[in-house]
Write a structure and sequence with these properties.
By secondary structure, the chain is mainly β. Helices cover 0% and strands 47% of the residues. The N terminus is likely disordered.
Length: 359
Amino acid sequence: MWAFTLFFLSVAPLKAADPLIVRNVENIAAVDNVCAWPCLTLLPDGTIAAVLFNKPSHGLMEGDVDCYVSGDGGRTWIFSGTPSPHEPKTIRMNHASGISNDGSLVVLCSGWGGKDFREYILPVMVSRSRDEGETWDRSGEVRLQEGMPNLIPFGNIIRVNGGTLAVSLYDAVSIPGINRAYVFFSTDDGRTWQDPVIIGGSGVLQNPALGNYNETPLLLTSQNRFLAAARTFTREASLALLISENRGKSWIIPENLYGSGLTNPGEHPGHLLKLNDGRILLTYGIRWGSHGIGARVSNDNGLSWGQPMIVISYGGNDGGYPSSVQLKDGTVVTAYYSDKNRFHDRYYMGVVHWTVPKE
């Protein structure tokens, strides 16, 4: 384990306007030799759980999804257990995680098999742990509609009022050139998942391009209001914001954002977090230029967004996929992954401690 503090002087300019540089960021190499794609969950006792892919490859070797935990705010990490072990000649790598209503850590995980680990998608494995990731019950299921292919989970599992849980999964195979993101629901505290709704603009069933999204994090901002920061399925992907005012049953793109995104091309995927002061934090991968993690903040539940910020600029060629939690003292802990870069010489999960500026 090692840590260092970064003071950024300059970075490559963004394509639109110069972003705000977040100063005095502490960056930690948290878990070494993993590609990670981390998903953080703040457990009821303040422990942070990180669910991550455990091999130093962008999904091109057999591997599992593991759970690591930190009891000191993300500074040191200990291996806890393996929620989603793989079968021979397959890879378990795509995952979502969160806390159920009874305090269990729930993980949904799929992956790939066949030629080059990209021939077919594995069924989602549903895993639950009552002991902070050490042991796992894998008796749950995702109930697909007739004709629906195996799906890929992404982001945090969120708790909805009334005891329901929600999670995002996406379809990467059924329509060539089109991805569709869904929200699935669980009414038995994360054991079974069903009743999918497509996340997309009006008319998505008639025109699938209106819902051409894949990795889509969700956030419940108030009793009925969901936000989704959907990764667009284009060559130069960015993030599109969608809103549901009825707990995920239907989705719209806000008029002020229609035709434009939350991020520039090449900046994806994202993560949404409601801060202690009520603001909404979006973090996202900057996967062009100097590479790093960007952020934007909304003061009005996602209707408008402040100036882009750069949280960390690390270089490298493969990285991003941030996931954030906030500690009681206001510190934001953001995990990401990167391959070899200016700070480390191989794949690893990094953790940034930072404070969101007041606008």
